[in-house]
Amino acid sequence: MAAKLKSGEGFDLQDFLEQIQQMKGMGGLSSLMDKLPSQLAGKASEADLSRAEKDIVRKEGILQSMSAKERRNPNLLIDGKTKASRKRRIAQGSGVQIQEVNRLLNEFDQMRGMMKK
């Protein structure tokens, strides 16, 4: 995983899902914030943490609503011919709007671009 992150090559939505699950396994975002120095941890309010936790749960739901093929090949959702029907199915399966699916895909695409740099 470290090699994938460092190179930026081969990083896919399955890896993203695994990162979220690892973070949850460590106690979630609030637990990670407790491990930061107090100067950094104090900047985040309780409401911000709660909102971020909910956002992470929503993202995990969206990722789990995707098929394994879609998680391994995100381009099916980004520039495939049947991307609209796939996104609609994922949104319905995760209980969110299609805009949320698009937002997750945009964030992922930006993250993948940053990793390549």
Description:
The chain has 117 residues and is mainly α. It has a single domain, classed as Signal recognition particle, SRP54 subunit, M-domain (434 Repressor (Amino-terminal Domain)), CATH 1.10.260. The protein contains nine helices and no strands. The protein starts with a helix and ends with a helix. The mean pLDDT is 82.
What is the name of the CATH superfamily? Answer: Signal recognition particle, SRP54 subunit, M-domain
Total E-strand runs = 0
Poorly predicted parts:
none
Shape: globular
Total domains: 1
User: Span from first to last CA?
Assistant: 17 Å
* CATH topology category name: 434 Repressor (Amino-terminal Domain)
Structural class determined from secondary elements: mainly alpha
Count of helices? 9
Strand percent estimate: under 5%
| H-E string | HHHHHHHHH
- In CATH, the architecture is Orthogonal Bundle
CATH class: Mainly Alpha
In short:
The protein has 117 residues and is mainly α. The chain is built from nine helices and no strands.
Short descriptors:
117 residues, 9 helices, mainly alpha, globular
Summarize the SSE layout with pairings:
Elements: H1 2-7, H2 13-25, H3 28-34, H4 38-41, H5 46-65, H6 68-72, H7 75-78, H8 83-94, H9 98-116
